[in-house]
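W.,

You were right to be curious about this one. When I first looked at the sequence I had no strong expectations either way, so I just let the prediction run and decided to look at it fresh. Below is the sequence, 128 residues in total, followed by the output.
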Amino acid sequence: MSIAHIHIHDKAIVKTLHYASNIISMEAELFAIRYGINQATSIQGVLKIVIIMDLIHATKKIFNTSVHLFQIHSASILKELRNFFSQNQVNSIEFWKCPSQCNWLLYKAVDKETKLFNPILLFLCKSF
């Protein structure tokens, strides 16, 4: 499961939950980044995108197109970013690392919501 929160000036705009099975955590992280960038670039007037994650190593995979396993996410993310940067020369993106021990209020709210979420298994045989 991945949860993407889109905020503009600390105001929640979009919150999306995605469920998947048989994928690795790196792929889930890249999908969440991909979805967040897609949503942020579709909002009129956005000049700066800040992606905040507790583990920043997934973002390095975006720019390594030789990793075959993640090429579909990398290609999509890079296409969105190319379009975003070509719209305005001041557009920018930043990746921030925010470990859970930072006690940032917004991070704590998202973390709490994630831990309270109880997914419904579609295939009970997969619960093991």
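Here's what jumped out at me. The beta strands are 2-8, 11-18, 48-53, 92-97. And, maybe more interesting for your project: The chain has one domain: 2-123.

Coffee later to discuss?

I.
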